[in-house]
Amino acid sequence: MKKALVIAISMYVMLFATVKAVADEEFALFDSDNSGTISVDEAKRNHALLEQFTHLDRDNNGELSPQEFARFTG
Ligand SMILES: [Ca+2]
């Protein structure tokens, strides 16, 4: 029983790490100047991202942080 729980937790952690790695990679693709944020200009490469930009930009600073970008739905 305990072993199954350990396996389940391990799988969850691995899945989470994979999802995060994919998200980081996607973020890096948009952040072409490696500033650590995605500007409107950088978002223009993806129509869906540009459409959601204002909604995703929670602090309204005109750039998307990795945390704000994490809420982007495709
Ligand atoms: Ca940038």
From TrEMBL:
Regions crossing the membrane: none
Residue ranges occupied by any EF-hand domain in the UniProt entry: 44-74
Domain of life: Bacteria
Presence of the UniProt keyword Magnesium in the record: no
Signal peptide (residue range): 1-23
Keyword S-adenosyl-L-methionine set for record: no
One Pfam family per UniProt: EF-hand_5
Entries under InterPro entries matching the protein: EF-hand-dom_pair, EF_Hand_1_Ca_BS, EF_hand_dom
Keyword vocabulary terms for this entry: Signal
Name assigned to this protein: EF-hand domain-containing protein
